[in-house]
Amino acid sequence: QVQLVESGGGLVQAGGSLRLSCAASGFTFGDYPMNWYRQSPGKERELVATITSTSRTPYYADSVKGRFTISRDNAKNTVFLQMHTLKPEDTAVYYCNFRYIVDYWGQGTQVTVSS
To answer: Can you say how many angstroms the Cα of residue 66 is from the centroid of all Cα atoms in its chain?
Structure first.
């Protein structure tokens, strides 16, 4: 049974940093690219970052490029999202995701950035 469990969200002031983690189980983690998405109230869920199975050439949304870093530890079945220079517009629920025939999602972790 696939499980994705996010953690690390919280309340932070603008300019601050947070590190999100996603612990994965129930599948061969090292074989799949992993994604971080986010969703703000009233907005569609958007892709924030993607990392391949071998951590090469990660993808970042333009809105987070240069501020966020996605990484993974295949030995620990965990993917991370390091977020720096946070802005109020980064406020959202952040979701871990991978795709194999269908999308699998975690429960999400709330990130709130105060101005």
So the answer is: 15
